Amino acid sequence: MNPTPKTKQHLSRVEAVIVSELQGATENKNTLSTSEEENVNKKQELQLKVSSMAGRRALKAVLIDLSGTLHIEDTAVPGAQEALNRLRQASVAVKFVTNTTKESKRNLLERLQRLNFDLQEKEIFTSLSAARSLLEQKQHRPLLLVEDSALEDFTGIDTTEPNAVVIGLAPDHFNYQTLNKAFRMILDGAPLIAIHKARYYKRKDGLALGPGPFVTGLEYATDCKATVVGKPEKTFFTQALS
Amino acid sequence: MADTGWPGCAKSLKGVILDMCGVLYDSGEGDGVAIHGSVEAVKKLKASDLQLRFCTNETQASRETFVAKLQRLGFDISVSEVFSPAPAAVAVLKDRCLRPHLLVYDGLLPEFDSVDKTNPNCVVIGDAAEKFSYQNLNDAFRVLIGLEKPVLFSLGQGRYYKETDGLKLDVGVYMKALEYACDLKAEVIGKPSPTFFQSVLNDMGLQPHEALMIGDDLVNDVGGAQHCGMKGVQVRTGKYRPSDEKHPTVTADGTCGQPGSGCGHDPQSEALSTP
């Protein structure tokens, strides 16, 4: 998952760096096949690189991906905790960014703290945060088609008489009745906001449809384009840095 | 010299193809409701010299069932005059030795009785309505993603249709969803597939320019018919929306009826006044 040249261009404009190089040390997302020593060396190398960049270019913020970068499921990437601690000593703001649509910030925080990462909830920015940020900006009242576990990240947002549709990974909501409701709202002018458009994901019992197919279906039904707020969309990064 | 524009060309027409849902009736509770003026219009057409066929993307019920429903609503119609996607799909499956995983409304299953459905090597989706649950869609997705050469047949590609309680998502939406999920293109059986329209024309023994299609779906009825060389007229009932009259790519040869009530006179009476 490397940032595209276009994304890098956007980011250099505000002097932030996605630490996707960090992923170079954890190339294979599904297994920890790279040796631990190799990982630690690569991280130290990166740490020096970031610090010197910070000095040279007045780097102000670093955005760090979570799954596959700091941790893989419930296992920390070896050496990542130390790398983070050293990064904290540089005078840069640190934010943790992820495309999750199922987990609230609190869940993510608890998991990362259990793995001995030093971070606070307010430093976490998820694709759900990006959606919330957009809703607040445009003052939309959303129909939230997101997992129950993700709802807490929308606490405080008015959902009465909804005038916007937000779609995340929510199999429980992807039934005919609910999608029809969303469809009619969009036909009436409600904007369609997609947390992301993943085609499918891996569950314990096999592959399962992600939100992407349902967003695509609704786009076809209504002849509208969804606003996608998750990575790698520009909206995500500009909201994270605002 | 024959006038090839509408409505002058009506004088050279030899056949009319009528869409059903949204033209003859609106579906909904029970048998649904006949659209005002449509029963009379069909009577007039049958009394004329014009050949008449019915062409529908109805896939919630077998032909026998929905023809019986229309007869109860007062229409003079028989199964042999009706063309629908399921029988066309069965012919394709048998021709290509394909065994389908079906995601269709229960009422359509009898149309597939003669088809081998074991060890499926393709997926067929129809207008399954409430059966478009996440679970069922996932099952269809898993069949496709597990095939070396996945084949998806979609019985029509409509975006939505009108029931008595409002607009509802049609099979095309779920076709697009599975296309996106599996990165493939579906094969459409039914309107607006040219093969489907041609099979109706063949049955009537007519050339495209001798036939007129009347429907409520601008893209699939009117656009599909025009693409085959027929004239296409849109009625202001069923899934018609005013924005259809300013569509970027499809322009109906004619639009008739008042919103909500049928097209009982135009263009059938124009078509009926043959020299």
UniProtKB/TrEMBL annotation, chain A:
Protein name according to UniProt: Uncharacterized protein
State the organism of origin: Larimichthys crocea
Taxonomic path: Eukaryota, Metazoa, Chordata, Craniata, Vertebrata
UniProtKB/TrEMBL annotation, chain B:
GO terms assigned for molecular function: inorganic diphosphate phosphatase activity; metal ion binding; phosphatase activity
Query: Which cofactor is recorded for it?
Result: Mg(2+)
Instruction: List the residue ranges of the region (Disordered).
Output: 238-275
Identify the EC number(s): 3.6.1.1
Gene3D superfamilies (alphabetical): HAD superfamily/HAD-like
Give the catalysed reaction(s), semicolon-separated: diphosphate + H2O = 2 phosphate + H(+)
The EC category is hydrolase
Any single Gene Ontology cellular-component annotation: nucleus
Where it mainly occurs, coarsely classed, is cytoplasm
Q: Which SUPFAM superfamilies match?
A: HAD-like
Location within or outside the cell: Cytoplasm; Nucleus
Q: Which UniProt keywords apply?
A: Cytoplasm, Hydrolase, Magnesium, Metal-binding, Nucleus
Q: Which residues form a coiled coil?
A: none
Q: Which InterPro entries match?
A: HAD-like_sf, HAD-SF_hydro_IA, HAD-SF_hydro_IIA, HAD_sf, LHPP/HDHD2
Instruction: Briefly state the protein's biological role.
Output: Phosphatase that hydrolyzes imidodiphosphate, 3-phosphohistidine and 6-phospholysine. Has broad substrate specificity and can also hydrolyze inorganic diphosphate, but with lower efficiency.
PANTHER family the record matches? 4-NITROPHENYLPHOSPHATASE-RELATED, PHOSPHOLYSINE PHOSPHOHISTIDINE INORGANIC PYROPHOSPHATE PHOSPHATASE
The record, for NCBIfam families, names:
HAD-SF-IA-v1 (TIGR01549), HAD-SF-IIA-hyp3 (TIGR01458)
Entry similarity comment:
Belongs to the HAD-like hydrolase superfamily.
> What is the name listed in the Swiss-Prot or TrEMBL entry for this protein?
Phospholysine phosphohistidine inorganic pyrophosphate phosphatase
What is the organism of origin for this protein?
Larimichthys crocea (Large yellow croaker)
